[in-house]
Amino acid sequence: MEPVIHFKGADILNGESIVIYGLDMDVMPGDFVYIVGKVGSGKTSIIRTVTAENKLLKGSGEACGYNLVGIKQRDIPYLRRKLGVVFQDFQLLTDRSVEENLEFVLRATGWKDRGLIDARITEVLDAVGMHTKAHKMPHQLSGGEQQRIAIARALLNKPSVILADEPTGNLDGETADGILQLLRGLNEAGTAIVMVTHNRAIFEKYPGRVFSCEGEQCHEVIDQGIDVVL
Known about the structure:
Layout: E1 5-14, E2 17-27, E3 32-37, H1 43-50, E4 60-63, E5 66-67, H2 76-81, E6 83-86, H3 98-108, H4 114-127, H5 143-155, E7 161-165, H6 173-188, E8 192-197, H7 200-205, E9 209-214, E10 217-220
Parallel strand pairs: 3-8, 3-9, 6-7, 7-8
Antiparallel strand pairs: 1-2, 1-4, 4-5, 9-10
């Protein structure tokens, strides 16, 4: 198996500043990976490097078969179609219904056939338990429901990996637990998950591989019995 995400000796940037030196990371198909650490430790910068929002200037990096070093601008949309991204603040279009939000993404990524679009929207809403919410506007949904729609959006193009950046940060404990169970179910069905979090309770309750960011370094925590700085 080839990794869906690979970094070797990679310096991770935030703007012009290096926030993590010499990152080594391989995410394999079917992995559930947490990236943890304090605010400002570089967690989100890793995600932005995977999506080619941040440049990779030193070391090597690949995501879904694309070389992140010197990736051409025209290739970035194709890379992003292979990634599903879920944000803390949902980032739904507020002037469109759930169905229209999902249709917008599909058409923007090259889907044209109305029947195929409708079928795919139904599939992803079923997958996240939101099949009755297609005609709702985002403001008519709870925070947990909006995040489920955001996950449905991330699934539209059948990504190899979902990148979830603090997906439970704006949710109460019970709702957050439901989102984690949903992500675990998607992972058990074969989708790799990379989740940024500073919530220790999450990765203690739902174990996975853990990478800890601290002091401009990010290393995998092999012995998860040791303390992780958050």
